[in-house]
């Protein structure tokens, strides 16, 4: 018997919560999964993840727009359209990368988003619509109540998907199994959506529409929704850039800022407001104490500032999203509200991931977004001394400017010690003093923002601005490069993030001398100096990663050298003679622009006698260059008696077991040269040397008795592969935690 339309309808809250949780879990599980799939083609540059996030935000905007468009129809028609499209999109599964031709050098900023859209566009678009759509269907029942808490459930599911990937899914399953599992989850979601539609099938129309208020929402309010959504989104991506530039390009670090961003919605949109109010109260303190370091570009020891930036991100997101929640409309305008929020998120992503690398020579978007947050967060004064008895408006304002002047004086003192490693205790005391001044000025937002700007300038900001004005910094899709000159040491350095990328002496007598990681006692130096003795006067040398081209100065007449470099900007620094190694030492060397792994796959087999892999993205080593498939490419390009040399110097990941496992799989002789030179122009380094012929490696070691080689650590249980790799077992946690 058909249900009478006037009879009470069951709320079925649990069903809608389960549907929203499942969809959000799948949505944010697929993000790191597809980015991980793309690593072999795109490398480990931080902007790869930011480009992926930009695509996800654009598809999310499209999904929210689609959900808003569906709202014009009766519920049954909505359900019919949505379920039909979900089934059609299912024919694009299982998930895999679209087959696109590799991008021309310099076009990565456009090609990477196209790859992600072509790979997961249909399913991501439709799954992204389920959260606002399910909330709308839930609210169709007059007895259901307000749907806003379901948005918190949506973000909780998203956070669970993000955390599950690096901690559970990636270590346990190969990519093919991950893709199959996601497809099964998608099928379960379709069933849940169908059940949710059936639960409201007897609803004649959407009662929420009948209760829609008359009149339009003011444009100013909509713009505020937009801005309050854009700033946290952009700040999340700029924080991600910092993390993945200086540590490692891996999903675990990709998802931390995004996970905190999602958790902020859980608190900000919860029915109970206590936690959100308390965290929002901390926002001014974190903006001053942690946000005040956002213009520092020389790095720091340990990861204290990294953790501080993560705390800042979370607190600011909770504060701004709480203000967004306070400005929410009636449930009838639910899909419009989410559509504007999604548009704001996409604008923040567009600014950070696409425009900033094209417009700025440094990560200027990060301090800009910190200042933007300071202009928007609720400023509940901890101590509003304007209300003290007998204190008039003029006296209060005079006192405020006195505090501002004192903060400016402390900031001036802070500028002199902020970058001095021997003055860090004084730095923190001065920072605390300026921060206290800023907190006293909370009743005046403009003065509070002025104090934050003072801290930004004092803690590295002046140095960062000066470096840009002197033209010593450049930026590309793959990173930010800074030239540092030290006239007293007669030295020029190339830095990427906080990591040394190479050095050159400006002393004419030493200008063509290999220094930093590449000295004669380094593993690569030992092999390069003996190349002609091992392979004759026409030795064929390949180098993955140009850097400052220091290795070019091991070139000898008759040798044929090839450099493989993915970033056109790095090559420019050699061609314009910022660094002269390439032009002076190996003017006849070939430089092949493009991903080294893809380009080496095109090389003639056995066309190289020595191949040195020295590709760093700041302190992050591109994972796709250390997989079993990558080693197969290298060995194909090497002659039978050739040497493969891999640079593994880094702070956070123990790579010896990975290299040992790859050597074991391919039957290679292997040893590591750990060099700790006393010469101040040289840098400690670790180079792993691999060869098919054990006698060849033995001969190399015998000819370099002054530079002993060591055996590698025990191999990992399995070598990394494009399909399955996890770095968690090899993280140097003590270094990561700054101990």
Unreliable stretches (pLDDT < 50, length at least 5) are: 1-8, 207-212
Helix content: 55-70%
- Tell me the structural class: alpha/beta
Number of helices: 26
**Biggest beta-sheet profile:** 7 strands, mixed
Gyration radius, to the nearest Å?
29 Å
Question: Got a strand count?
Answer: 11
Strand content: 5-15%
- Distance between termini? 70 Å
How is the largest sheet built, in terms of strand order? 7-6-5-8-9-11-10
Mean pLDDT: 85
Task: Give the overall form.
Answer: globular
Note down, in words, how this protein is organized.
Helix 1 (about 15-40) packs antiparallel against helix 2 (about 45-70), helix 2 runs antiparallel to helix 9 and helix 9 packs antiparallel against helix 12 (about 305-325). This protein starts with 12 loop residues before the first helix and ends with a helix. About 55% of the residues lie in helices and about 10% in strands. The chain contains 26 helices and eleven strands. It has about 750 residues and is α/β, with parallel strands linked by helices. It has a seven-stranded mixed β-sheet with strand order 7-6-5-8-9-11-10, sandwiched between helices. Strands 1-2-3-4 form a four-stranded antiparallel β-sheet, covered by helices on one side. A hairpin with a 4-residue loop joins strand 2 (about 480-485) and strand 3. Mean pLDDT is about 85; it is low at about 1-10 and about 205-210.
